[in-house]
Every structure is written in structure tokens, then in C-alpha cells.
Amino acid sequence: MTDTASTSAVQPKISFVSLGCPKALVDSERIVTQLKAEGYELTKTHAGADVVIVNTCGFLDSAKAESLDAIGKAMAENGKVIVTGCMGAEPGEIRDRFPNVFAITGPQAYESVVGAVHQVVPPAHDPFMDLVPPQGVKFTPRHYAYLKISEGCNNRCSFCIIPHLRGDLVSRPAAEVLREAEKLVKAGVKELLVISQDTSAYGVDLKYATSMWKEREVRARFLDLARELGDLGAWVRLHYVYPYPHVDEVIPLMAEGKVLPYLDIPFQHASPAVLKQMRRPGNQEKTAERIRKWREICPDLAIRSTFIVGFPGETDEDFDYLLQWLEEARLDRVGCFRYEPVSGAKANDLGLPAVPDEVKDARWHRFMQTQQVISERITRAKVGRRLQVIIDEAGPGLAKGRTKWDAPEIDGTVHVAARRPLRAGEIVSVKIDRADAYDLYGTAV
Ligand code: SF4
Q1: Using 50, 70 and 90 to split pLDDT, how confident is the model at 1?
Q2: Distance (Å) from CA 217 to ligand 1 centroid
């Protein structure tokens, strides 16, 4: 043990900045859980910390700029900075701007981050200080938690650099995922949000190997995992699912109420020509037809998706095809991005003509208007129904929550009037009185 550690009566302090998607948030939680277990304390300001960790996102140029800003702020306010996450996979740009950054590690390099922290400020060893809750440290409210089932991705979508940053698919054994999920539920989590880069590809790399869970063997397979998670007694929400044929098998679980009737499928486009250039996984051609079949099995199924407009070579016909597809598919929730030529992405080398910014903008507006009419129609059809709502924020007389069709942060909110005070994490029955384009308003019954 070093002098610093043995003489230090106070816990060493870490300031942590977590940027990017839920997958990055899960990485942040793991790092912080490990550091808390070793006796480090989290502080809210950079100034009072022994070291600052910045978990970066490098997916889009705008995200990179935000990451560089966060590093700059940490350097100015503290000076001892460890950079990790997606941008850490390409340290050159960070070193050029901030040569005095203490250490740079890549995504999922938990041990390197913790090792770098030890170099700056060793842990104050005290076994009685290990007051880490059994579920680890979560940045999300206690009643919901992200559950990461794999890292990396075997696909090679031409606009994406994630496989380059995070490598090929590495799935966690089913029993390991289920143990974590069970711990979360025992600690009070009411909703598990399953995430990965490609959830429906879960287990491919393990050749669907079995592992022991509750004295029986469970395969590392999308359907098997979804079924087991559904038995834990919490809401289970599936994110980043691609429409591979075996996704059909999970729809009956939704109809039975084992997992939430919700699929987050990033379609990105509908035109076969654009999808081909995007090199998207899954056979997209008959997707609208399949969605119809899924709804026959599970009429309450909600589908959320994201799309990219202005991909290189996207013609007016491609875009019209997309709008028509959107009308037909009637997706519940949709996000739309204007294409950004991320440096290092294959799409930049395809020799396709770039779509001018003003055309991208015009398409984005048309897309959003079309979808808004669809979303509004779907939302308004819920008026008069009694729906189960999970409370996210409790307030006197008025609380905010979500239905089974709404994921936290990205989908709609239910504003709930109640006679008695509601608690966060409580699931209540709400009569829906009115709706606007995205949100619902109702009374707890
Ligand atoms: S599926 Fe495509 S977009 Fe998603 S992480 Fe993999 S390569 Fe990137």
C-alpha cells in the first residue's frame, strides 16, 4: 500500500462524465461500480475530484465534438483526465487537442480505466467501505435498468463505425445475463431494458451454447433469453432488434404478456436500393407484410424505429418509397436523422453522390410531418382506455409515467393525476382522458 492510500482518511474522489447511447451508459455503470467497490467516491464537480473520467461517444461528428468539449472542460477545471469510450479507439485526435490527457483507453476497456485511476490516485483500502449495492451502481432511476447482453457487432452497415470501434459480436452467456437481471429485480428494478448493438443476433458467436441457470440449461438464444427474462416478474423491453426471421418467434411471448409488446427496430430506410448500399442486416423487402402478421398475433404491439434521410445516392423515388412504406407500416414511434458522413465509414467511399443539405432538410421535414400524423392517430386512439402505467417521477397530485409502449427517454409520457401520492416504480392503472401528438393525460383509478 502506498503512503497516499494508507494515510488518507478520506476516500479518493472521481468525477465522471458519461456521454453517448445507453450502451455507453452501461459501460459507465460498470466502471463506476468497480471504483465504488474499491472505495472511490463520486463527486458532482470536476474541481473537487482527484481525477475526471470522460466516457466519450464517437458515433457522429457532432457527438465527437461534444466529447472533445467535455474533455476540454475537464482539462480546464481539473487537469487529471482519463478518456475512455468510443473515441478512445482512435486516440490521435484527442492527443492532438489535449496532449496532457493522463490516459486514453478504448471502449469496454474497464480494467484499463480502473488501472489508470489507480495510477493517479490509489484506492483507500478499507474492506468495510465496500457499500456497493448488490445490483452495482446504476445511473438510471432505481426502477428501471439497462441490461447489456452483448458487445460489438458482426454487421458492417456502411454508415457505421461501431464494429471498427467495438469489434465483432461477443455475447454474454445466458446464465450471466440472467443472474444480473435477477439481482436487479431483487434490488427493486421493475423494468429491464435489453440492449446491445444487435439484440436478435444474441448468442451467434457462442453458437447458442447453454449455461446453467436455476439447475437447468439455458441456450444463449434470443428467444430462450427473452422467455427466461420474462419469468423474472419485471417488465422486459427489447431494444435494437433486427427483423431476422427468428424474431417472429418472440411475438407470441409478447401476446402472452411475458415480455412487453414493444419492439425497437432501427429500420433506417425502406427503399431496397438504399438498404443495399447501407448494407443493412435482415431481409427488409417483406417487412411491412411481416409487421402485419406480427400485429395479427399481438394486436397491441408497438414498434419504434429510427431512419436516416439523405444517405448518398438517395433519389426522390427512394424517398417517396420510404414515405409510402411509413404510411403502410404505421409505426408507433419514429426518430429520423439527416445522414452525416462519419469519417472512417465505408459509405463515404461508395462513389455515390452526396445529397445536398437543403434536400436533406426538406426530406427530413416531410418525413417528420408524415410520421407525426401517424403517431398522433395512434396516440389519440388510446383516449378512453385504461392502461398500465409505470411511474417515473412522482409529484404531489401529478406524476409522470409511461405505458408498456413507451421506453424511457425516447418515447412518450403519461401525465397522471392521482388522489394519493404515487411512488416512482409503481405500476398503476390509468384512465386516459386526452392526448396530444406524443403524450397522454389521465387519472389513476
Ligand atoms: S447493426 Fe449496423 S448500425 Fe448497428 S452497430 Fe452493427 S454495423 Fe452499426
Answers
A1: very low
A2: 30
